[in-house]
Amino acid sequence: MTGHAAADLTSGGARLPGDGVASPLSGKDLAASIRAEVAAMVAQGPAPKLAIVTATADEASAWYVRSLARAAGKVGITCEVVDLGPHADAATITATLVALGTDPGTHGVILQTPLPAGVSAREVALAIEPARDVDGANPVSLGRLATGLPAYAPATAEAVVALLDHHGIALAGKEVVVVGRSTVVGKPLAHLLLDRDATVTVCHSRTVNLPAVTRRADILVVAVGRAGLVTADHVAPGAVVIDVGTHPTADGGLVGDVDAGSVAAVAGALSPVPGGVGPVTTALLLRHTLDAARA
Ligand SMILES: NC(=O)C1=CN([C@@H]2O[C@H](COP(=O)(O)OP(=O)(O)OC[C@H]3O[C@@H](n4cnc5c(N)ncnc54)[C@H](OP(=O)(O)O)[C@@H]3O)[C@@H](O)[C@H]2O)C=CC1
Ligand SMILES: Nc1nc(=O)c2c([nH]1)NC[C@@H]1CN(c3ccc(C(=O)N[C@@H](CCC(=O)O)C(=O)O)cc3)C=[N+]21
Predict the structure, then answer these.
(1) What φ, ψ does residue 24 adopt, rounded to 5°?
(2) Distance of CA 282 to CAs 11, 66, 78, 175, 241, Å?
(3) What is the arithmetic mean of pLDDT over 265-289?
(4) CB-defined site of ligand 2, < 6 Å
(5) How do residues 26-80 score in pLDDT, each as one tens digit?
(6) Which residues bind NADP(+) (predicted)?
(7) Which candidate, 180, 147, 183, 178, places its Cα nearest to that of 161?
(8) pLDDT, tens digit, for every residue of 170-226?
(9) Does the annotation place 261 within a ligand binding site?
(10) Domains and CATH numbers, the chain
């Protein structure tokens, strides 16, 4: 289904015909093939090791750490969770990151957010060794990414581009609107998209008349952290919509930043939550860890 949609898009048409049912841009197959590739490579050498540093009691973060550790285990990557507790200070977090940056048995380092009150994520992330910064959290990594030097991109930003590529959606010359300017998603993604010759607009909470801006998009990427913020009136008929948001629901489900019910009727293609960007993010973190181990 999506293969057909992709053919329409890559053949020069900016948008898909809005036929009332958006093609689902699943990330599951892509994530599975990345994981299989990583597992095969891991099997050929010593096991890479990923260290996850956490200093929070946040339940969502804990869920994410558990799911990442499980995914790592399945491809043969060793995962060490270093839990410093919700009251750790900046000096302790920094010292831990510095030690993991030189520990010969460690290859990838992730610092979980949120951090304890008063600890600046950006300041402490400077202590992550860039060669092991598999989620692109060190400001140095973002600077390298922005200037075309080799660096690990934040896995989520890279996952958005990988998902578009996987579905054959061309980027060169396209109007891409990114809603959200965070250091984890919006900013690095803007650089990745510019590198692919897209015309990029980045929106945020002070953007005036958001729907008017987002309706210009051939490809709309939403990473605002607000469930259902983007509705049908934000989307041009036939546009491709990528939903980065993840919000647990009361009944144990997961919804995105896009109101999928209304947007699916207007968009040409829409990435689902769950099953879209999320699984690709996790798979790319594993690939980055393998790359760091083999570098
Ligand atoms: N699937 C995955 O792998 C990942 C998913 N996520 C999810 O993506 C979402 C975004 O995450 P993250 O980037 O970390 O979030 P942040 O809260 O760091 O950033 C949100 C951005 O959205 C902007 N924004 C907030 N409200 C509005 C609004 N009403 N109109 C326009 N812009 C708005 C903010 O603007 P301003 O800068 O002006 O405040 C900010 O730039 C979350 O749901 C998160 O859970 C995040 C990382 C990975
Ligand atoms: N520096 C930083 N990097 C991150 O990558 C980061 C972060 N901070 N803060 C929190 C968010 C959240 N996040 C998710 C990744 C994968 C899924 C994922 O795989 N979800 C499955 C669903 C699982 C289910 O159904 O419960 C899916 O979308 O299909 C979800 C959420 C990464 N984050």
Answers:
(1) -80, 120
(2) 31, 12, 15, 27, 20
(3) 98
(4) 64, 113, 135, 137, 155-156, 184, 246, 254, 273-275, 278-279, 281-282
(5) 999 999 999 999 999 999 999 999 999 999 999 889 999 999 999 999 999 999 9
(6) 180-182, 246
(7) 178
(8) 999 999 999 999 999 999 999 999 999 999 999 999 999 999 999 999 999 999 999
(9) no
(10) 2-25+167-278 (3.40.50.720), 46-129 (3.40.50.10860)
Give the angle 186-230-233 at the CA atoms, nearest 5°. Answer: 130
In the reported structure, the alpha carbon of residue 293 is separated from the centroid of ligand 1 by a whole-number distance in angstroms of: 31
Q: What is the pLDDT of residue 256?
A: 98
Going by their DSSP bridges, the two strands 175-179 and 240-243 should be labelled as unpaired
Nearest 10 degrees: Cα torsion 34, 201, 196, 141: -60
Q: Is the backbone peptide bond immediately before 130 cis, with ω within 30 degrees of 0?
A: no
CA–CA separation, 188 vs 277, rounded Å?
A: 15
What is the amino acid identity at position 123? E
CA 85 to chain CA centroid, nearest Å:
25
Q: What pLDDT score does 60 carry?
A: 87
What pTM was computed for the model? Answer: 0.95
Residue 181 is assigned to a ligand binding site:
yes
| Three-point CA angle 54, 60, 63, nearest 5° | 75
ipTM score over 0.95, yes or no: yes
Q: Quick one: pLDDT at residue 21?
A: 85
